Amino acid sequence: MYTKRFFPVKGVIKWTRRHILLFLLIATIPVFLFDIAGLKWLHVPWLPLGVLGTAISFLISFKNNASYDRLWEARKIWGGIVNTSRSWTIMVKDFIDNTHAKNPKSDKELQNIKKEIVHRHIAWLTALRYQLRAEKPWESHIKNDKGNNEFREAHYLVCEDVNEIETAIKPYISDDEYKEVFAKGNKPSQILGIQSRKLKELMNEGLIEDFRHMEMMNVLVEFYTLQGKSERIKNFPYPRQYATINYVFVWIFIILLPFGIMSGFEGIGEHILEDLAKHASHSSFTHKLQEAIANHFVWFSIPFSALLSWVFHTMEKIGENTENPFEGGPNDVPITDLSRGIEIDIRQLIDDTDIPEPYTWRNDIVM
Questions:
Q1: How many CA atoms lie within 13 A of 191 on its CB side?
Q2: Per-residue b or e along 243-262, where b marks 16 or more CB atoms closer than 10 Å to that residue's CB
């Protein structure tokens, strides 16, 4: 998540510089054939090309809206995880006591039980964020694209790529629980299952009475729901038929665009020549310079064609890099930072010790 008010244009240009050079090359080839090789028939009427550009604009808009909806839904889900984690912690803090205990515990023992449950919840958060950061086949562009890779290495860090999940989870659960969790597939689900089992044990010991146990189980169910919503976004991509066809249509437009605007720029050059013919003096340096520019005015279509291609392609690329909000891109939902914020909040609620500091992020990109 980029946190400054304005996204740096310089960064966007650097991110897309290879495509800008490609667009300049694509625009130069037809102009060379048209003006130097004399293939004056080599152009496309602007009207059908304009209709195609309008249709592609609608397609890009549709894709970007859908991508933003996926991003915003993911942010709402994690907002729910933040709020429910706090609710869970105050229940742990206040519901577990000796009121109905068969064998009353000391204050220190009660504190250790609460700490164990809260730490297990942090393990769930950790397992969930690692699961959401795992690469899917349709997300490979974030690492395989050279521009994305360079930007990632130079500007931000994805903690889940640096630290192993085993190392991140181990401090928060016991050795037996660690073995149980890593023997199964869906690690976050297994951790919630252990939480449920421990709550039942506490109820049997009388440390939680029936009503409180039911309320806490409802919160665990809510965690399962929020996890499932996150997994739905992670495991179901933006429909590939829309993404692929949209990408193909954008490139068709980019390739045809220079052929559609060359004749327009040549017409401007012809109008300039008509005006120059009315000049009193045709021998001055200024007149000859303007005449030379007018004769080859079609070459000015190259930067304009590259600019239009860049706008269409960049908007399509932004949608592509926004559609998967957990993949590890700079515009993702900052689940790593949110998890650390939750950990600090809930551990402070139970007066825990050795609480970690918030993450320090580089270049205003929070992950």
A1: 26
A2: beebbebbeebbeebbbbbb
Task: Give the residue among 9, 8, 113, 12 at the shortest CA–CA distance from 321.
Answer: 12
User: Closest Cα partner for 159 from 119, 132, 188, 189?
Assistant: 132
Which among 85, 78, 126 has a CA at the least distance from the CA of 325? 78
- Smallest CA-to-CA distance from 254 within 307, 214, 184 is with 307
Q: CB under 8 Å to 51, separation ≥6 — which residues?
A: none
Tens of pLDDT, residue by residue over 295-323, are 888 889 999 999 999 999 988 888 888 88
Backbone angles phi, psi at 317, to 5 degrees: -70, -35
- Contact present, 63 and 319 (Cβ < 8 Å): yes
User: From CA 234, how far away is CA 327, in angstroms rounded?
Assistant: 8
Cα–Cα dist 33/259, whole Å: 11
The pair of structure tokens assigned to 311 is 């706008």
Residue 204: partners with Cβ closer than 8 Å, 6 or more residues away = none
Over residues 175-186, the pLDDT tens digits come to: 999 999 999 889
Tell me which residue of 267, 319, 265, 293 sits closest to 31, measured CA to CA.
Answer: 265
**2 - beta bridge partners?**
365
User: Could you tell me the pTM of the whole model?
Assistant: 0.86
C-alpha–C-alpha distance, residues 275 and 59, integer Å: 42
CA angle, 110 then 210 then 106, to 5°: 15
The crossing angle, in degrees rounded to 10, of helices 301-320 and 46-95 is: 30
